[in-house]
Design a protein that fits this description.
Keywords: Membrane, Transmembrane, Transmembrane helix. By secondary structure, the chain is α/β, with parallel strands linked by helices. The chain has 22 helices and 20 strands.
Length: about 675
């Protein structure tokens, strides 16, 4: 769904967001100290270094004795003593400067550091052996001592890690026993996090995986016990209270299968998110956080293991994008996002900033939303940046000042009125924001030489039947028409997609609020279906679509299969832990369709560049429409009646000059 720049909603005050974020950061720092193999040790680093020195001393003595067939009488004792002193000094110096305080003890980073220490040690001892007479150490001992000592250091760390994990498993028997689904990368990460986190309340007891090649695999002492279909029996036999799905790329079918098997086992189900999701600061569309009213979203980091969300059941996993191609048009460019505080606009900002634009200018008419998006993008939220612009695209002169002052190279236009029913009741608002403001923005961008313009559209523009659909169809045609005027090197395109899962004002937030209040779920019809995609997937595909889109084209994102709204609502309630909800049917409202479609009946499904992006040609708008848009805006400003429903419908399909005369005086409400 689209996100309106004009939309307002109940938002948590900035100070609440900051305090929650600070608390989350504090918890993350505390867990950061608990995570990793550094917690294997409870001794200071100098003590651990002395243990390494002791290993080096033992190795040197044993190698020297073996070189002289265990005859201590013929060993150069003075030279051996000097060698031990030299080796200890070289180790302490190099480890202190290159490894200590730079790498966690027992990690892969430290292994690399130890290799460097061993190279310095071998070089210094070999040089000393060659340059002294008689030789301080036999050259063979000087060369082999460092590699042997390094092996000893690694064995020490491996034994310490395994001891720590074994002790963690023994101590965790009073906690919650977890059966892990997936013995691949995700399974290894999940087990490592459970075993290495001293504060974890979960401890693994077994793995299941359908890959026959992993039948006898063991990870940190946790072995594969069987296939996924054996999950209920294994959970009962191992006493598992939690099933942890550790397959970040799991298909919706696999997720549903694991849910069903977990229910049979009577266990709780948790999910290991993908790495991108863990790093994302976008709020989830699932359970509301404690103390936060249902439906209000706050940008906080996701937890390591979380409950199953509708994203898992409806999403299609990771989207393949061409990051280099996206970076080629964003890096070192000035990028403007309108409606930056909305669900799509804010996620676009978070995605765009990763491609290192020269500047990212964010504009919205809601100051609270601007504060939230700045906080999620740069973590500051000070509201003092020149790249944060508070204003309404409908205000005369605002657009020309915005584009003239910031001179963007790329514009993502996400500001819109998006709610179908309100757009139907207040057609003038939809016209002024979706049509008139977009027309002004396009004209100014062409005049100022903006090279790339991406208009965010909606599936309701395909064979439209509502004010919202007609208005967005007009913006698609306007974008194509202005793209022709912008010149051959410019790219002005529209990207069309459907409902964004869990966005503000979407069906899920409505269901969440109704469930939390104990009210029935209001659903239009038992047969109504809609397309859904996650906000992360939508934003990535928008950026990808802009790579190959050309002026005059509309790009339609593949939304997968449509989902029945009632089934979606009941599944959502079950995932939240609510009993089967009562459903009240409200009936189809004016302008609503029972089923949406992403492509119009006359639009071919042509995907020349990306499997999830369809390219269609957009018909250009007659020249007199721009004049008529200004006329209608003036008439509305004077309070005169305009039949906007009829005007929008005619203009959406206009192939000839448009002529609709104003009628009697009215408030401007259609």
């Amino acid at each position: 769904m689209l996100e309106p720049a004009a939309e307002t909603s109940a938002e948590t005050p900035p100070e609440d967001v900051t305090s929650l974020d600070a608390q989350s950061t504090s918890d993350a720092n505390r867990k950061g100290r608990a995570n990793g193999l550094v917690e294997v040790r409870h001794w200071p680093i100098p003590v651990l270094m002395l243990v390494d020195v002791a290993i080096l001393v033992v190795i040197l003595v044993l190698l020297a004795m073996s070189r002289y067939e265990q005859k201590a009488s013929i060993v150069n004792r003075e030279g051996l003593g000097l060698a031990l002193l030299l080796g200890a000094c070289v180790y302490l110096a190099t480890y202190s400067m290159l490894v200590a305080r730079r790498c966690r003890w027992g990690t892969q980073d430290e292994v690399v550091g130890l290799a460097v220490v061993a190279i310095f040690l071998m070089s210094s001892m070999s040089a000393a052996s060659i340059l002294t007479h008689p030789a301080m150490l036999p050259l063979s001992v000087a060369v082999t001592a460092a590699p042997c000592a390094a092996c000893g250091w690694l064995v020490l760390r491996y034994v310490a890690v395994q001891y720590h994990r074994a002790r963690k498993r023994r101590q965790g028997r009073a906690g919650r026993r977890a059966l892990v689904v997936g013995a691949g990368w995700g399974g290894r990460q999940a087990i490592a996090m459970m075993l290495d986190d001293a504060g974890s309340v979960l401890h693994p007891v077994g793995l299941v995986d359908d890959d026959s090649g992993k039948r006898h695999l063991g990870i940190s002492g946790i072995r594969v016990q069987g296939r996924i279909e054996d999950l209920p029996e294994l959970a009962r036999r191992l006493g598992a209270e939690v099933v942890l799905l550790a397959v970040p790329s799991a298909s919706p079918g696999l997720v549903q299968r694991v849910i069903d098997l977990t229910n049979q086992a009577g266990a709780d189900l948790l999910v290991l998110p993908s790495l991108d999701e863990m790093l994302s600061t976008q709020g989830v569309s699932g359970p509301t956080r404690e103390g936060i009213p249902g439906g209000v979203r706050i940008d906080l980091p996701r937890q390591a293991f979380r409950p199953v969300l509708l994203d898992d059941l409806l999403g299609r996993g990771a989207v393949e994008i061409d990051a280099e191609a996206i970076a080629s048009y964003l890096r070192d460019k000035v990028v403007l996002v309108t409606g930056a505080g909305g669900s799509i606009g804010s996620q676009l900002c978070r995605e765009i900033v990763q491609y290192q634009p020269a500047r990212l200018v964010m504009t919205d008419r809601d100051d609270s939303l601007l504060h939230a998006v700045q906080l999620s993008v740069d973590g500051r939220g000070m509201l003092d940046s020149e790249d944060l612009v508070l204003g309404d695209l409908r205000t005369p002169g605002f657009i020309s000042d915005l584009i003239g002052r910031h001179r963007p190279d790329v514009v993502f236009h996400a500001a819109a009125v998006k709610h179908l029913t309100l757009a139907e009741r207040y057609a003038s608002e939809a016209f002024l924001t979706n049509v008139a403001a977009t027309s002004d923005l396009l004209a100014t961008c062409v005049e100022q030489g903006v090279s790339r313009f991406v208009n965010i559209s909606t599936d309701k523009a395909a064979d439209p039947a509502s004010v919202l659909g007609f208005s967005k169809r007009i913006t698609e045609r306007l974008t194509a028409s202005f793209g022709v005027k912008a010149g051959p090197s410019a790219r002005y395109i529209s990207v069309r997609f459907g409902n964004v899962l869990g966005s503000r004002g979407s069906a899920l937030t409505t269901f969440a609020a109704q469930l939390a209040a104990g009210r029935p779920l209001t659903i239009t019809s038992a047969e109504m279906t809609r397309y859904f995609m996650t906000v992360h997937e939508a934003s990535q595909l928008v950026l990808q679509a802009a790579v190959h889109g050309r002026s005059g084209e509309g790009l339609i994102l593949d939304m997968g299969k449509p989902h029945n709204i009632e089934q979606l609502a009941r599944r959502f309630a079950a995932l939240q832990g609510f009993p089967p909800p009562t459903v009240v049917y409200t009936g189809v409202r004016p302008g609503e369709k029972m089923t949406e479609r992403t492509l119009a009946s006359d639009e071919p499904d042509h995907r020349p560049f990306h499997d999830l992006v369809t390219h269609v040609g957009m018909p250009l708008m007659p020249d007199d429409v721009l004049v008529d848009i200004d006329r209608v805006r003036r008439e509305l400003g004077l309070g005169r009646f305009i039949d906007l429903h009829a005007w929008l419908k005619v203009v959406a399909y206009a192939a000839e000059p448009v002529s609709l005369s104003p009628g009697s005086v009215s408030s401007g409400r259609a």
